[in-house]
Amino acid sequence: MRAFLYYALMLLLGYAWYRYGQNLLRKGYRDEKGELTQGLVGPVGFLLTAGVTCYLFFAMLRALVRGEVPCVGKGCVGQVYTLAAHAGDYWANMFFLAWCVLGLGYAMYVTLRIWFRA
Questions:
Q1: What is the pTM of this model?
Q2: What is the maximum alpha-carbon separation in the chain?
Q3: What pLDDT, in 10s, does the model give residues 70-90?
Q4: Whole-angstrom distance, CA of residue 58 vs CA of residue 96
Q5: What are phi and psi of 109, to 5 degrees?
Q6: C-alpha dist (Å) from residue 24 to 54, 67, 94
């Protein structure tokens, strides 16, 4: 039950993130106060987000190729989950990595669309 609640909340948060980005894209050049519409991140935040996204994407690809993923979180620092021995924990961490990559990638997409409107 706890795993179902965890995944349901992650999907709900992802949906809210998607709706927020779509609302920003729908606003146009200026918001209701007359100020320019800002992206999700600024220029420095964009570079940091791009770096973190690339690192997480590389970690996800590496975990798929090697069949092992390091634990994501404080409670299991240094532990490695392998596909053969800990399949459930392996796929849970892979889902979390994929969710982070998609969420941060979407933030960069929305920011670039706002910056380069034609």
A1: 0.85
A2: 57
A3: 877 777 778 888 888 888 888
A4: 14
A5: -60, -50
A6: 24, 38, 29
